[in-house]
Amino acid sequence: MIDETVVTLSRLQFALTALYHFLFVPLTLGLSWMLAIMEAVYVMTGREVWKRMTQFWGVLFGINFAMGVATGVTMEFQFGTNWAYYSHYVGDIFGTPLAIEGLMAFFLEATFIGLFFFGWDRLSRVKHLVVTFLLALGTNLSALWILIANAWMQNPVGSRFNLDTMRMEVTDFGAVVFNPVAQSKFVHTVSAGYVLGAMFVLSISAWYLLKGRNIDFAKRSMTVAASFGLASALSVVVLGDESGYTVTEHQKMKLAAIEAMWETEPAPAAFTAFGLPDVAERTTHYAIHIPWLMGIIGTRSLDRVLPGIGELVGDAEQRIAGGMKAYAAMQRLRVDRNDAAARAEFEAHERDLGYALLLKRSLADPATASPDDIRAAAASTIPNVPVLFWAFRIMVGCGLWFIALFAYSFWLSARRELDRRRWYLKAALWSLPLPWLAIELGWIVAEYGRQPWAIEGVLPTALGVSSVSVAQVATSLAGFVLFYSALAVVDAVLMLKYARKGPDGLGMWPPATPEPVPDHSVVAARP
Amino acid sequence: MAESHRPAEASWFRSRGGRRFGVEFGAIIVFKLVALALIWFFCIRPLPHADTRPAAVADHLLAPAHEAPDDR
Ligand code: HEM
Hints:
The structure holds two protein chains of two kinds.
Chain A: H1 4-45, H2 48-68, H3 73-81, H4 84-118, H5 125-154, E1 159-162, E2 167-170, H6 173-177, H7 180-211, H8 215-250, H9 252-258, E3 271-278, E4 283-290, H10 293-299, H11 309-335, H12 340-349, H13 353-357, H14 371-379, H15 385-414, H16 422-430, H17 433-448, E5 453-455, E6 459-460, H18 461-464, H19 470-505
Antiparallel strand pairs in A: 1-2, 3-4, 5-6
Chain B: H1 16-44, H2 54-62
């Protein structure tokens, strides 16, 4: 049987490294476009302040980039050490987008980041702007490939189990790339990064205004952040709704758990705005329902029914029974590869093989499972309802707050009153951690909500782990925690140091000689 | 426009503060790559390699799963 401690520690290690890595990625995604916008304004207007803004926010971008780069590599180490069976089982499919991402990240991003910092006095303005634009495009494209790989774990399309190699193999790479889950994930995730980038600029600029420093510089930065942030916050919410719809299509149990929908309700189902899910009683106490909303979001209709947790557990029992037939046929084929009847039986139930593998957590041979074993395995397909319920609601709450804050910022900037209300500046400053919170919670919803599957319906997480010992995983876990904690301290110190110094402290702004009135064409060379 | 093709003016990244930033930026990346290489060399490389030949994977999936590395 499987050593659950190894599974738990391996999951913890992967979750911690992924969550840590994803503190940096979205800021890179969002800030890179903000730099491109600021520099585009500089190229169009020739006004020095826009160039200095690009350079100052570029410095903070650079620290984030340097701290974040390669923090994802340890996840790839773990595919080999802790998740060897996972890697073997799905490597044929999962490996390709990861490899493309690696090439993109190293060649595109690494080249353009160097040119971004050190090409200012070597490239023409337009060429430098193209570099900044390609830097943003490169970071966003590498996110696309990672999300294609991740989406395949949520909705494993374009692939089939091969009995001879004992692993999943690609049958249609186009289907993997154009997976509808990948599309909704990509747009939702990059928009979340844009919200973070905008909030980062808005909050730090608000701090300068509160301190009475870099006034003109901060107000312009906030103007960009307000408009970019408002567009991004609107799209993160609209596209979050699209994510909800694709989850309904492909991961019904995840959706039912997010909603704590214990039983199937008549269509259109209500959305539970608040409540305390009780796993033991399979009920939600003090629930406040908004009629119809869930049915409309989840099915885009008034008459399609969303299945509840109870019904989905029943479906899982059926699929486990089907999977046991595939499993037994596989065992027969192991003895005689030419057993045509066994092969036909396998092909008839192949789709449910993963469900039989759920039984391996408690049984050496799933073919011997009793009805009680089957019921227990089916019940194990329910993810952690209270965590998903709350993580989702906090993420959504943050989304609504971002729309309000950026819309108000936009309004203030249109009226040129960004520095008039201290309470607003304080609210903008203290909102800085919220996009990070929403983003990490989003990943918890997506990944914890996929449990007990590593690959939805195909490979249970517990079966993907390597045959390593508890001591080995515990040691590498401790090593990673130490390494990442040290990095986090260095990151915080550097970010704070450069943000505190600000454009004035770094000698970037104001310029030594007053900025000439722009003639929209020439910017005098500076010594 | 001829102006857009000229090099942009001397950059802050060439100033003293900018050069210092460049050094810090490079040092972090080099430090991290070295640390990761060391972690890989001392912690990851010595770990046993999982046997993922089809027959061994069939063992993993079909026969009782392994519990410790040495029973492979
Ligand atoms: C009304 C607002 C929102 C809705 C309806 C929503 C919906 C969702 C859903 C359904 C998922 C799970 C997708 C899956 O499991 O495949 C998700 C994940 C995620 N959310 Fe949200 N979300 C909202 C707001 C936000 C905000 C404000 C942020 C951050 C600024 C955010 C960041 C994320 C991230 C990073 C993920 C994980 C990646 C992914 O699965 O797409 N979300 N969101």
